[in-house]
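#data-curation
PF: Archiving a pair of folding outputs for the training set. Convention for this channel: one message per protein, sequence first, structure tokens after, nothing in between. First:
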Amino acid sequence: MKTLIASLMIFCAGLSSAFAQSALDKFFSEYSRDERFTVVEIKPRLFSLMAEVANDDQDDFDSVITNLTGLKVLAADNVTNGLTMFKKAGAKLEKNRYEELLYVHKPNKTEVRFYIDEDKSGKIKELVLLSASPTNFVMLSITGNLDLDKISKLSGSADIPGMEDLDKVGGKKKKE
């Protein structure tokens, strides 16, 4: 009987974690099928493949790539409510989980926010970028064992919406 109860508890715990989804994941899912949006989602396996083919002279690239577990981008460049979407996405962030690193605000023109999520040891495990204007919106989430300085150095070479703003956070906060 104890074995049956223990098995049921383990099954239920696994089932609940399988259905658990962060607020940002839900926001991403909500808009990922909307035709106005470009969606990019890179899975961990692609990062490991990229690390395998990296050149020896790309030490920064290799060290960043091997520590990434995911990248998601949700971007729209022709919406009528970019700033409203920015506020909606920002409201979804769990304030006790994410720490704001940077905020840029030009009234009725542009808003940019960077957030991080750290584990208990102070390692950065997620970087979130929200960026918007009246007609544009970008949400970017990078997960893994992150080094902001290395990511910001590589951000200029990536042709992914929102990555160009990552150079703003390099050196802002780094715990190792």
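PF: Second:
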Amino acid sequence: MESIQEFDLSNATPATLSTPSNKNPTALTITTTTAALSSCSSSSASSNSPSTLSRYENQKRRDWNTFGQYLRNHRPPLSLDRCSGAHVLEFLRYLDQFGKTKVHTQLCPFFGHPNPPAPCPCPLRQAWGSLDALIGRLRAAFEEHGGKPEANPFGARAVRLYLREVRDSQAKARGISYEKKKRKRPLPQAPTTSQLPLPPPTGSA
């Protein structure tokens, strides 16, 4: 069976999905090819110049195409209007096999260790930050393609709960914190001489 290339959600190179025709016809492979890159460049040049699109917009378009290809390769094939939060969770779990982040199990001696001193057989997973950013882009792309916000599968409660669970479990396993740092409010500046109020005029003697 053709090997599955590692899927990097932050990679700027377009990724294409294909269905191998050998032992497992339902398995998906994600490969990056020069032909896909040139095809993407030529098609975008006819409508929009690549230089006019931001990195975020380019990544969002690639993510949307990848998810669409995943739906077409789904067994049975799945249309976007029938896609639910459960299908989004299937997609996220599928992407885990292409992850690069080591997530220690509770039986691992390095569980909760932010900098393990030695390698271990624990699985590689997609980092929570990558999945969270991916869902944000797909959620925006869904509505840009005519989807209604109330029917957005990427904003489903089950998806939010799954991302929260991934965040908490990876924080414990890796010994890191995903809590956002609170910004310190700047201290009020003391008024300068020019800002000080003028003394009231004194009466003449």
